[in-house]
Amino acid sequence: MENLWNDTEAGKQQGILAERIYSSRLLGANPNLVLHGGGNTSVKGVSKNIFGEDEATLFVKGSGSDLATIEPKDFVAVRMESMLKLSRLEKLSDLDMARELKLASLDPNAPAPSVEAILHALIPHRFVDHTHADAIVTLTNTPSGEARIRELFGDEVIVLPYVMPGFDLAKLCAEVFPAQATPRTIGMVLMNHGIFSFGDTAKQSYERMIALVGRAEDYLKKNAPLIPATGIEPVANWFDLPELRKKVSAAAGFPLLLRSIANGATLAFARHPDIAAISQRGPATPDHIIRTKQLPMLGRDVEAYVQAYKKYFEKNSRSAPTPLTMLDPAPRVIIDAEFGLVSAGRSARDTQIIEDLYLHTQDIIRRGEMLGGYRALGETDLFRVEYWDLEQAKLKKAGAPKAFAGEVALVTGAASGIGKACAQAFLNRGAAVVGVDINPAVASLHGERPDYLGIVADLSSTDAVRGLLEQTIRHYGGLDMLVLNAGIFPGGRKIGALADEEWRKVMAINLDANLAIMREAHPLLKAAPRYGRVVVIGSKNVPAPGPGAAAYSASKAALTQLARVAALEWGADAIRINLVHPNAVFDTGIWTPEVLAQRAAHYGMTVDEYKRNNVLREEVTSKDVAELTAEMCGALFSKITGAQLPIDGGNDRVI
Length: 655
Ligand code: ZN
Fold this sequence. Notes:
By secondary structure, the chain is an alpha/beta fold.
């Protein structure tokens, strides 16, 4: 395991919290140690209170932050005295503990301290590092896991049996640590959970973590080497995936995105001869269950999965001290011989995290099999974590999801103007967005974020259309909303001078390409969990054409008629299709300041008068059109199809 410590960098850190942050980020930088918020760290120091007195303080990671990107504000300062006093209580419920931890904080605005805070306080070393390292979890999840750990680490680590994180685990540590710790003790392994290391300095604690996990990794390399799968060809019919998404979303009761990864490793795992057994033994650490659920779904039988989940809930909730409400019974991990690994989540970020967790789990299972058989914690322990009141409280606090959470919007012509604004409007409402444009700028318009996929494509090719829909499906599982915006507006030309070639080009892009994308996207829209929606960006030229734009006006009028027929044909599939007819939207690429000034002068107006040359004297922006477009896909328009709305500030020829 690579040691990332750098004395020069570390030397620049001023004070113990800065050192703590430096080495926490080193842990976070290695996904085999820390994955998506797993693990936590602490350091013990002194704070001055308002009376000028010194107070012994534990700086511990707050919940909700990630070690890879942790900052000073993500650490909570809690009174050591309160931590130690709490650890001497006989009993403390999890909710009471969470409240007491919050009360022990020196800053009421700080995040909630980690549920492992008391445990950190009890370890009599200044720096404490904790990870759910893959190699450790792999070893502990095998039949003779504890023996292997003891053989590997001897008296350098203390071994604790699995106990749910929280007060009981801290109590156990309070008992075992003083009894078993020797001057040689540098770490502590929690069975089926992870590992702690500690030391007097940030470097010592970090390097002990690297050394301990490194030893476990070497053991695995020797005794359970992972050989990459070769010669496996992906053969999936991706256009079947939206149907599966519809069923999974129906089981959840809300739309979910599906992200898939079909490579050698995931396909080999999905086609493993014992997959039915090995995939159904539980998660690598109980920590994962919150995101992945207890078990993955094998294949595509959602109904059977839901029934099994309901049984699992009924059986295990019977012994709960207070009545529990069942979480949605939809799977979050799907293992399929064709699709490979599919993760289901409410946001693109969720699906990415779930995918990462399961890619690691897959390797842990394969290695566990080589070491005598992968095994996980029992169902009862797992259920306790899944229905932990602290987790339930977090879910309640999270509030209502955004309007388009779990849904996918595809916008054509998304590199600039109205299309770009539409992509933003849908992102703002929680949708995953696919922006398509012939302009390569579309790929990087919204930065690196999992909920945006920019595709460079020429929509006049039906193959390209099918290709981009396949990419949409592989990234997000399907399509819910389609915004047909791409189009061209050639320079003004009277009919007498209009060449066949120009006419055909305008028709090909403004009309034919939209027919192709509508036809190819129809099965996807039909499978949308909350029914598909289409918005066509038309033009004022449809109801009120002007001279010199015959090809453009005719193409938009034909597109309008196409959309009206689609509204009639697709109503039976509950797909809604509506149109907007914008006019004089000047914040787009075509309208440079020079062109604007020229046109305004042509009409004897100032630029501002020209921009507001409508009944309401209001300037219409790309954002105005985008907001209306997004709303047309929302609840307000749920009973409207085939409608045409002008968005032009009022035009006397349209009114
Ligand atoms: Zn932990």
